[in-house]
Design brief:
With 426 residues, the protein is α/β, with parallel strands linked by helices. It has 2 domains: 5-40 and 53-259, 3-Layer(aba) Sandwich (Rossmann fold); 270-400, abc- transporter (atp binding component) like domain (Coagulation Factor XIII, Chain A, domain 1), CATH 2.70.50. Helices cover 23% and strands 33% of the residues. The chain has 8 helices and 18 strands. The protein has helices spanning 26-39, 83-90, 123-133, 138-152, 167-180, 197-212, 224-230, 248-260; strands at residues 5-15, 56-67, 72-76, 98-103, 107-110, 185-189, 216-220, 233-238, 241-247, 270-272, 287-293, 303-305, 310-322, 325-333, 338-343, 355-365, 373-383, 386-400. A 6-stranded mixed β-sheet has the order 5-6-7-3-8-9, with helices on both faces. Strands 12-18-17-14-15 form a 5-stranded mixed β-sheet, with no helix packed on it. Strands 10-11-13-16 form a 4-stranded antiparallel β-sheet, with no helix packed on it. A hairpin with a 2-residue loop joins strand 17 (373-383) and strand 18. The longest helix has 16 residues, at 197-212. The model is unreliable at 18-25 and 44-53 (pLDDT under 50).
């Protein structure tokens, strides 16, 4: 039996600068056509006709993969590895520069919030539109309509134009449509990064259900714990190349040992965040740098004893005057499970006043209550209650074994330490 998806020698090249518009609409096309004669008047650069640089970037290079029916495949890699580009090629949003993809089945994709929605149409109308795009008849869509709306939980907003939806409502409806219209192949990119915890659990449940129904699922997520529980196969991408393919557990182990930790050593206690690979493309670099210190204000160089103090100094840049802004610090396991979060909004004495330009947050944790092991720290910035920047894996942290309780017994089970006092009745 032939694979449901065949990927053969697929490569994708982008030209950097202004030479290419990947998803241009009619207005952009008309504008570019109008401006083209004027571009020829600019001074030439690097020998090009219009002065634009001809440097190229290979987002993917020579990818080969067979995906069988009923496979649940995780695509793993750091930001910029080429995961989303591969999914866009599979979903026929963009074409490969080289190679070909053969898809044998009806495919539904959820790559970005509201992908495929028409903003002027209502939620109800977009359900029918997306179903039609998938090749479904009206009767088929009506059969699933109630399930879709109940799962999405948009209630009275069903007949409201989706341009007025919040990002959470957008993604709930988009995922619900993609998951309920009986696709043979479901392609999902980072859906767990949006929505509340209850919705994320419903998403995981729906993807697990798709697996039991022998549908094919291709799943991109930084939540490696979810990947391990949902997927039976894993593909690891690194700088556009496929560097490992095997079971999901093997792929996670390879990623953590060979790629994630490879560049994680902290040679300096100051980390430049301006051009870090841990930032998603949708964010502007408001986070500029972070500096870490341990006991006696000593520079942190990657290791901390159990229960040791940690001071984190975060420098951000406010491009416009702003009154409401806060920094956050997330402590995660290497598999992406959030353990705890420190946030400046939790500070009871936090003073809000209008500020502009470079700002410095200092967070002091007197006793970091993590058990011995490897962890990663993510950093974020919120403005007016919305996340405007986030950096994954900004710093890696090794917590060393030590006699935290002063008894000679080193704690080894669980995730974090608690203060506890015992008494034995006489």
């Amino acid at each position: 039996m032939k694979p449901i998806i065949e990927i053969r020698n697929v490569s994708k090249q982008y030209l950097l600068g202004e030479a290419v518009g990947l998803y241009g609409n009619l207005r952009e096309t008309v504008t570019q056509t109008f401006l083209r004669p004027f571009k020829s008047l600019r001074p030439h650069s690097n020998g090009t006709a219009d002065g634009s640089a001809q440097s190229s970037f290979w987002a993917l290079k020579d990818i080969n993969l067979d995906i069988d029916a009923a496979d649940t495949v995780a695509v793993i890699g750091a930001n910029g590895a080429g995961k989303s580009t591969l999914l866009k090629i599979l979903s026929r949003i963009t074409d490969p520069t080289e190679g070909q993809v053969i898809v044998r089945g009806r495919l539904a994709s959820l790559l970005e919030v509201g992908t495929g929605f028409h903003p002027e149409l209502t939620g109800r109308e977009n359900i029918y539109l997306n179903g039609s795009i998938l090749g479904m008849r009206k009767q088929e869509i009506e059969t699933k309509f109630e399930e879709i709306t109940n799962f999405a939980g948009i209630g009275k907003f069903l007949d409201t134009p989706v341009k007025r939806y919040s990002s959470g409502m957008y993604v709930r409806l988009a995922f619900s449509i993609a998951a309920h219209l009986d696709p043979e192949i479901l392609v999902v990119d980072e859906v767990l990064a949006v929505g509340d915890v209850a919705f994320q659990k419903r998403c995981l449940g729906k993807m697990a259900e798709a697996r039991t129904q022998n549908r094919t699922v291709i799943f991109v997520s930084h939540n490696l714990a979810a990947v391990e529980s949902l997927c039976n196969k894993g593909l690891v991408l690194h700088q556009g190349a496929a560097v490992f393919c095997g079971t999901a557990k093997e792929a996670i182990r390879f990623y953590l040992q060979k790629i994630s930790m490879a560049g994680a050593s902290t040679s300096s206690h100051i980390v430049d965040l301006s051009n870090t690979p841990g930032r998603a493309a949708k964010y502007r670099p408001h986070l500029k740098r972070v500096a870490l210190y341990t006991e006696n204000n000593e520079p942190f160089i990657g290791e901390l004893r159990v229960g040791g103090p940690l001071k984190i100094v975060i420098t951000v840049n406010l491009e416009e005057p702003c009154t409401s802004f806060d920094a956050s610090i997330g402590f995660d396991t290497l598999s992406g499970q959030r353990i705890c979060t420190a946030h400046s909004a939790y500070e009871p004495n936090r003073v809000h006043e209008q500020r502009h330009g470079e700002q410095i947050f200092t967070c002091f944790i007197p006793n970091l209550p993590l058990l011995p092991g490897e962890y990663q720290i993510g950093l974020g910035l919120d403005m007016a209650g919305h996340e405007v920047d986030w950096v994954d894996e900004a710093v890696h942290l090794t917590v060393l074994r030590s006699d935290y309780y002063g008894t000679g017994v080193v704690p080894t089970q669980g995730t974090f330490l608690i203060e506890n006092h015992w008494a034995l009745a006489a």
